């Protein structure tokens, strides 16, 4: 944990001290906000053999500085490195980012987290965690529309043990990571393949919403307490 915080402090210091690094990060953030996948892909390619390393740290950046769209990084990794290696890169970096967010919240508390994510969003997660109890993290990870960073920060404010959070995050983010990586890998191929991959992503989200009432019924307060 100390190592992660030390790296975070060093990264922030370098960002503030080195103008070229600051400009590069700001450019990447702009492309992420605009969800410009083609421009973001070209940005990563400009780093040559260092592209995977840059992608790794940018994924962590998108998760800490909520609410930048991390799916752009996952999609681009699939496009550049293939569904398998791109998926591993995205999954691993997201796990590191989730752990950092968790410990930022646990160490610094709610006032600091409210400066990163909105108070309204945190209030929503309070109700979500109260309703679904120990299943909250896994359920949230399986629903694509729920902010990845928000759940990571919110989890750090609860009594949930880190390993429970970490395992639920690892399992829960797998389906979306696989789908976005496959979609990215096939972006330059058959339009039909891209279409069906996109449909799969949509269906995944719809299924998550459809099963919500089932979870509400099964994991009532009395059953998860």
TrEMBL record:
The keyword NADP does not apply. GO terms for cellular component: plasma membrane. It is a multi-pass membrane protein. It comes from the Bacteria. The chain crosses the membrane at residues 49-72, 79-105, 132-151, 163-184, 190-211. Keywords: Cell membrane, Membrane, Transmembrane, Transmembrane helix. Residues 68-185 form the VTT domain. It is found in: Cell membrane. Belongs to the TVP38/TMEM64 family. This is TVP38/TMEM64 family membrane protein. It comes from Anaerobacillus isosaccharinicus.
């Amino acid at each position: 944990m100390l190592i992660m915080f030390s790296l975070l402090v060093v990264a922030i210091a370098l960002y503030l001290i080195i103008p070229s690094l600051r400009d590069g990060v700001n450019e990447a953030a702009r492309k992420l906000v605009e969800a410009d996948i083609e421009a973001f892909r070209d940005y990563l390619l400009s780093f040559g053999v260092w592209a995977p390393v840059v992608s790794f740290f940018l994924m962590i950046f998108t998760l800490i500085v909520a609410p930048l769209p991390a799916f752009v990084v996952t999609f681009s990794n699939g496009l550049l490195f293939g569904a398998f290696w791109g998926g591993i890169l995205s999954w691993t970096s997201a796990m590191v980012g989730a752990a950092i967010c968790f410990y930022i919240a646990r160490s610094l508390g709610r006032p600091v987290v409210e400066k990163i994510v909105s108070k309204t969003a945190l209030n929503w997660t309070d109700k979500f965690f109260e309703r679904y109890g120990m299943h909250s993290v896994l359920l949230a990870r399986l629903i694509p529309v729920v902010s990845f960073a928000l759940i990571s920060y919110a989890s750090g404010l609860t009594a949930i043990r880190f390993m429970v959070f970490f395992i639920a995050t690892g399992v829960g983010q797998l389906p979306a990571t696989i789908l976005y990586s496959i979609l990215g890998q096939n972006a330059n191929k058959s339009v039909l393949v891209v279409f069906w991959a996109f449909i799969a992503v949509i269906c995944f989200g719809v299924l998550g919403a459809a099963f919500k009432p089932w979870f509400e019924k099964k994991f009532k307060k009395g059953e998860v307490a």
